[in-house]
Please model this.
Amino acid sequence: MNLRFVSLTILLSPLFTLSASYNFLSANSINDRSYLSNKTVLITGPTSGLGLQVVKDLASLPTQNKPFKVILLARSESKAISTSEILKNVDIKTEIIVGDLSSPNQVFRMAEETKNLVNSIDVLIINAGMFSTATEREVQSDGLEKHFALNYLHQTILITQLLPLLTSPSSSRVCIMGSYTTLEFAKGKLDFSTLHSKEGKSMGGPGSSLPSAHVYSHAKLAQHMWAKHASKVMPKGVTINVACPGNVPGTNLDTWSELRSKIPRFLMPGVNWLLASRTVEVGVQPMMFIMGSSYMTSKTGTFTDWSWKKKSLQYFEPKPIEEYHNGEVAESVADPQQCSRLYDETEALMERFKEVPVAV
Ligand SMILES: *[C@@H]1O[C@H](CO)[C@@H](O)[C@H](O)[C@H]1NC(C)=O
Model:
């Protein structure tokens, strides 16, 4: 399969504007989940979509690779309880922490509750996210733009607050659900002046007129940039890596629900073909790989992008976070000064929310 792809690449190479080198992973590396054996895992947004599928995949691991405990951070207690049943049924222990991950203040509180429940975390999965169908940017009552608050800030607060738990084992993995839209829509460039404000672009540019395409992918880009800088300053033993699921319209992100409701059912196969849509089962595989494969031991600051223009996964070796499988580079992620500026500005912003007492 590798050879066929290589020869195809050579045949088609005049059509490519960029020539990328393709290295493929071995089947052993792709399917290995041994790192998860008897580990403590924390996941945000586990009750639906990709998060729920990650939980299902964890529950169906062979006995010797099953985690010891999974901590679920979710907004809905009843959904979290039914999700936890999937794990309990196969003798994986669970803990549930309820809260709104779009509220920085509540994320601080959830981190404190986590510290009261466990002494260490081996795998921290940042998965919760939203993709609004609003055509204008929306800000929360705390003044933060919604995608920035949920998709980005819950990541930075949880990782920094849970660092003592991540450094307790000899190694631990932070795994982030990233996105190719950082390149397709946000064009790899962060606009510091509209980071979390009401003002600024909302729709994507040509080729992505989806409502909120820009503001969604911009928050994703911030996630990638923060992870890039964090990978350099994290204590030894804590790795941080990003995985991209590709296009997975089966999730309940608002944008996908709306798309499904607007397009006549008989046209959906055609749309799915155009989007190279993947099922959730396929979409979580890059994440399962960075969580579980021993190939990822000691690797940090990488992006596992198994293509997004193909329905099936292309098992490329992970690249640095700023780089995509096709060789294109996100300018802002590749710039250490921009990444460290974002990291510092985020630290200051988080401090502000830490001060505010939780409203009851
Ligand atoms: C699995 O982890 C738990 C909790 O850390 C520990 O008590 C137990 O001994 C471990 N089991 C094995 C087989 O290593």
